[in-house]
Structures are given as C-alpha cells and as structure tokens.
Amino acid sequence: MLRIKTKCLTLIIALSSLSVLSANSQTLRDPTLPGRDQVVTEVGTQQQSLVLNSIVNGSTPYAVINDTILSIGDIIQGRKISYIGQDYVNFTDGSKLQLFMSIKKR
User: Fold this and answer.
1) Do the Cβ atoms of 36 and 42 come closer than 8 Å?
2) What is the dihedral of CA 6, 10, 13, 15, to 10 degrees?
3) CA 16 distance to own-chain centroid
4) In this structure, are residues 77 and 93 in contact, taking their beta carbons and an 8 Å threshold?
5) What does the pLDDT look like over 45-94, one tens digit per residue?
6) Within a 10 A sphere around the Cβ of 96, how many other Cβ atoms?
7) Residues paired with 55 in a beta bridge
C-alpha cells in the first residue's frame, strides 16, 4: 500500500513539474516580434521634417519639398502653401521654409 502511495506521489510530482515546464514554454516567444502591448506604426506614417529642396520660378512657381513637386495651394503634411518666393515658401499657418544655398569653393 505504501508502495502505491509512493508511486502516486511520484506521478503527481512528475505531472506538476510538467505543467510548470509547459507554462514556462508558453512564455517563450519570438524575440523579433514587437512587445504584446506595443503599438506598431508604419514608417511612412511618421511625419518627417519638411525640407525645401529647390524652387523653380516661372509663370507658375513650383517648390520641391521632401522631393515632391508642389505649387501654391498644394498641401504637404497638413500645411497649405500660400506663397512661393525666390528662395522661400510660406504656408497658410504662418510658417516659412527657407532654401539654403550651397557653398562653392574658389
């Protein structure tokens, strides 16, 4: 009878240790996946700073901002272009982008 109780106790201990091992294996996850409570955003949705690449003056002026050709009235990142000057662009929100000239060696 004692031998049966010992076997039962050994079986219970073995089963409980298996359940602990299986619980630990459930917590292992792919380390390349984002965290469970983290929000994943696409790279393209993040707003980058505006860069005035160039200005083309003519009968209709154009500005190249973040490598996109724009004219007066166009909107980029929620800002509407109100004026395109010789070396700057004004937006309706009052902000301004200035074109930087490159430095040339003599």
Assistant:
1) no
2) -130
3) 44
4) no
5) 556 789 999 999 989 999 999 999 999 999 999 999 999 999 999 999 99
6) 13
7) 63
Chain centre distance of CA 44: 7
4-16 in b/e form (b: 16+ CB < 10 A) is eeeeeeeeeeeee
Closest CA to 76 of 86, 85, 63: 63
Are 72 and 81 in contact, with CB atoms under 8 Å apart?
A: yes
Task: Count Cα neighbours of 78 within 13 Å in the Cβ-side half-sphere.
Answer: 6
Q: If DSSP codes are grouped into helix, strand and coil, which group holds residue 52?
A: strand
* pTM assigned to the model: 0.52
Write the CA distances from 12 to 1, 16, 21, 24, 61, integer angstroms.
17, 6, 14, 18, 82
Task: Specify the 3-state DSSP secondary structure of 53.
Answer: strand
Closest C-alpha among 84, 81, 62, 63 to residue 73? 81
